[in-house]
Amino acid sequence: MTAALPEVVGGAFAGSPADSGVPVVAGLPRDPGVRRDDGACRDDGACRDDRRSSLRPAPPVRATMLGGIPVADHLSRSELLMAQRCGEVGSVHSWELVTAVDGPGTRMTTFLAGCPLRCLYCHNPDTMAANRGVPVLASDLLARIERYRGVFRATGGGITLSGGEVLQQPAFARRILATAKQLGIHTAIDTSGFLGRNADDAMLADVDLVLLDVKAGDEPTYHRVTGRRLQPTLDFGRRLDAAGIETWIRFVLVPGLTDNPATIEPIADYAASLRCVSRVEVLPFHQMGRGKWAELGLSYELAETAPPSAELVASTRAIFSSRGLTCF
Prior knowledge:
Elements: E1 8-9, E2 12-13, E3 25-27, E4 65-66, E5 69-70, H1 77-85, E6 89-99, E7 106-112, E8 134-137, H2 138-147, H3 149-155, E9 158-162, H4 170-182, E10 186-191, H5 201-204, E11 209-213, H6 219-226, H7 231-243, E12 246-253, H8 261-273, E13 277-284, H9 290-295, H10 310-321
């Protein structure tokens, strides 16, 4: 997206009330054109990294509407915790209606708040902390989703749950996905797979497509990029393959960080070994999320990193294509 965002007032865009048509982006302020790379969240203490402690506590976000979706600010703390456990409420950062991004057709992508990965190139670090979201009732989010059934039907689109990390909030995700499937809506999740253990078989039965973000193909580079381990992602991909769930592999190409063939080729080999993988997306690194790191008081290690050249992008895509993979 290149258009300037409308003014945000009280967490909702001025001039974009619930019944005023289709917003391009809805929720908390987002930089134009910024896409995210997701992570994961139930912390088991494995593979800790010092960068986790560098994320200073962000003040909770206060809003009454999230782009036309009511915020559940009427719940007491105990009621909120209970509702979150059973999936009636989720912590939502924002949502947007987009085409040709996050899956086929026109999609309503919902960004959930909270992520344990600390990707050096994260384009939306404001989704890392759970309290950067607002509580939203599953029923209210589903009501908004249902409004776009005609759009989804006409374009072959649907919904995508992203983040942050969608699998940090499995109960909420499970409820949204199951109801969407009952409504005949195509469903997708965008995840790093690090918390794949949180996605039980019942949840996966309601998922049509998984956008699996593989940050690097070797453990040292993966830990350097995310502060976490690669193996849970690989294990999750194998589960998706066994279940026959269509999967798109996503890989962010960062010069000097993830551009070594020694980390790219293992991803290509892995993707080629999964029958469920229908495409691979090589996403060139960019600096559009840089300002958010400064706003959050975080040290941004890639400030001097340039986007990859067209030649590097082409040669990287060629690695995947040489394995018989459809690559974009």
